[in-house]
Amino acid sequence: METVLITGASSGIGYELAKIYAKNGYNLVVVARSRDKLEVLKKEIFEGISKNVKVTVIEADLSLENAAKRLYNRIKLEGLKIEVLVNNAGVGIYGKFSEFNEKIMEKNGAMINLNIKAVVELTRLFLGDMMKDGNGGILNVSSIAAFMPGPLMSTYYASKAFVQSFTEAVREEVRNDIRGKNIKISVLCPGPTDTGFEKSSNLTESSLFEKMKVMTAKKVAEIGYKEFQKGKVVIIPGIFNRIAVFVTRFLSRKFVVKMARKLQEKKNKN
Ligand SMILES: NC(=O)c1ccc[n+]([C@@H]2O[C@H](COP(=O)([O-])OP(=O)(O)OC[C@H]3O[C@@H](n4cnc5c(N)ncnc54)[C@H](OP(=O)(O)O)[C@@H]3O)[C@@H](O)[C@H]2O)c1
């Protein structure tokens, strides 16, 4: 049985991906800060999906310094071999960058550590092993935010553009290496999805989720899993999201950034 490591598996898209991987016969290593929620997931898999799936719960805050390396070392110590890495954990911060105070800047730094640094470090560590084995897969979770600048969520959008560019570039390197022929690397770019993200990012203040079509985490995870298995590089779930990304290609950057601001504006803006 192959093992998948999923970060941010305690809720939303990661939680749904974990159940899909379990259904498809993978053992799981699930990571997040909320151990209790990961234990609920483990129980749900054991009672509702399969008693043969081994679920290893690891509580970790991936925004902390060296967290990725510690997670990797812990996995090695437990003798686990990871065939698939899903870098899903991510957070957002809503608000005007010019008005960020020290406290929000601290949160912003933690977001950059989680959304970018942990993704880069985990990718490097596990990709090294996959290259030695000549086998494996990495699915990084970005967003349709990667395709445009995002006023009122500037660092979050930029972090997802980083993940997008990074993943596509590494994929091209790996594909052109004889040891990487059997390694799948993809990036999943959801649009607005009904998860804990809207609340945790303070996006409830924004009109984004009212103006855009919102998908369920289950649907996003199903599409993500299916397309990743097929080897699709950039996975954008939902026709509405695909059209939105496609259209931005033909619009001026100036127009796109204004459009993104309109989408992100506060609900009660007068
Ligand atoms: N929902 C959307 O509209 C949307 C759209 C596009 C892209 N995405 C992306 O999808 C991914 C999953 O988000 P989601 O929508 O499923 O949101 P979610 O329900 O809030 O899930 C986020 C996951 O990340 C974990 N996490 C947060 N901070 C962490 C930290 N410091 N260390 C380790 N784990 C941490 C959370 O667990 P704990 O709190 O237990 O740590 C949770 O499991 C993110 O990368 C997000 O940027 C979401």
From TrEMBL:
GO terms for molecular function: oxidoreductase activity. The keyword Oxidoreductase applies. CDD domains: SDR_c (cd05233). This is Oxidoreductase, short chain dehydrogenase/reductase family protein. PANTHER family: ALCOHOL DEHYDROGENASE. Keywords: Oxidoreductase. It comes from Leptotrichia shahii. InterPro entries: NAD(P)-bd_dom_sf (IPR036291), SDR_fam (IPR002347). It comes from the Bacteria. Belongs to the short-chain dehydrogenases/reductases (SDR) family.
